[in-house]
Amino acid sequence: MSGFLETIVAHVEGVVEKSKAGVPLAEMRRRGEAVRVVRPFREALEAKPVAVIAEVKRASPSKGDIALDLDAAKTARLYEEGGAAALSVLTEGTFFKGSLADLQAARATVSLPVLRKEFIVDPYQLYETAAAGADAVLLIARILEPSQLGDFMALASELHLETLVEVFDEADIDKVTPFAPPLVGINNRNLASFDTDTTRAGRLGALLPSGTTVVAASGIKDATDIRRHLDAGISSFLVGESLVRAKDTVGMLKELVSSE
Questions:
Q1: How far, in Å, are 17, 118, 260 from residue 39 at the CA level?
Q2: Where are the domains of the chain?
Q3: CATH fold of the domain at 3-257
Q4: What is the pLDDT along the chain (260 residues), one digit of tens a residue?
Q5: Is the pTM of the predicted complex or chain greater than 0.70?
Q6: Residue 236: in which H helix or E strand, if any?
């Protein structure tokens, strides 16, 4: 891991320990295993020629504060109106200024499936994710050992959470291949340098098994970026900062999803 990732993972591990002190694992497990209505995530992406996972995002380490006063529910409604296939909600509180409350508010106001975007490093967080009502959860290959990745995917499945497994390079792909994740996100941004290369997803996507639903993430700003990925065989996209900063969120989303 890069220094940045090491820092954030160490911080998140500390947050998890504090959460366990407040709500013990046994209780969080009980909440996470409770029956709930789940919205199909991958199916929602596959149903659209151009599928955008629109992200509720307040800040990031690379861009700083983006929209600290963002209203998660209002933003989610705009995303649904614009034709998003699904939502992503950043819940990490220190570096991204998000929360599980944002996720719950967003999901309560729309009919779209919702992904929890978080640095998942402990099974406790998966129970927490299900308890909060998420439909899917991000697992970042780079911050997990292979055994953890397999265990987390299995536990998520038991909790009726779909997993979006994020990779960045060939080494990550080698790590995740034995687990055959049906949904793989390719991050165009290098989390060590924050450099973005929007050709990365297309190159790496070609290395994944046929039938994998590939999501291109980071650096998607306009219809040109969408079409570049479509030419590489990728039709699902995670878009955050560009939508949050857009003056006309609904109009921008409609333009993106009609970029065939």
A1: 30, 19, 26
A2: 3-257
A3: TIM Barrel (3.20.20)
A4: 567 888 999 999 999 999 999 999 999 999 999 999 999 999 999 999 999 999 999 998 877 889 889 999 999 999 999 999 999 999 999 999 999 999 999 999 999 999 999 999 999 999 999 999 999 999 999 999 999 999 999 999 999 999 999 999 999 999 999 999 999 999 988 766 677 888 899 999 999 999 999 999 988 999 999 999 999 999 999 999 999 999 999 999 999 999 87
A5: yes
A6: strand 236-239
